[in-house]
Amino acid sequence: MENIFAVLPTPTAESRPFWEACNRGELLLQKCDGCGHVFYYPRQMCPQCGKREPGWITSTGRGIVYSYSHIAVSFYGAQWESQIPYTVILVDLDEGPRMLSRLIGDDRERAKIGDRLEVNFVEVGKQKLPFFRIAAVK
Ligand SMILES: [Zn+2]
User: How many whole angstroms from 38 Cα to the centroid of ligand 1?
Assistant: First the structure.
């Protein structure tokens, strides 16, 4: 995909492992070793039980469309105008967490709630970002 603009992350101590894994083509999620809760985005403690220093698991990178929005108007200036039209999605990952991302691919405007998705890492600057495509196999 060409000409992708995105606001790049500023990794923190909590999120650095996530972003480094994206650059290796892996989608990491945190998993609490106290209660087993799997969650996204990266945090210092489990949002369910409060246990500190959660571990990491590698996601399959698969999930379904929970919701989406096709963006046709930019309110944020020329860099975003160059991206129109694009599609923002909420993905329910197979491991449980819901993740905000961007849907890419020529078929993205046919997306329906419940469609199977797969992660697709897109390099912007020096960071690979976890975007999604409609999965070839449903
Ligand atoms: Zn927990």
Answer: 8
How many angstroms is it from 69 CA to the middle of ligand 1?
Answer: 32
DSSP 8: P
Which residues make Cβ contacts (< 8 Å) with residue 15, sequence separation at least 6?
A: 9, 41, 42
Q: 72 and 135 in one domain?
A: yes
Distance 28 CA to ligand 1 centre (A): 17
Both 51 and 99 in one domain: the answer is no
Q: How many CB atoms lie within 10 A of CB 23?
A: 13
Judge whether 33 lies within some domain.
Answer: yes
Host domain of residue 50: 12-58
pLDDT tens figures, 101-131: 999 999 999 999 999 999 999 999 999 999 9
Distance in angstroms (rounded) separating the CA atoms of residues 73 and 105: 19
CA of 92 to the centre of ligand 1 (A): 20
Position 38 pLDDT exceeds 80: yes
* Ligand 1 center–CA 45 separation, angstroms: 8
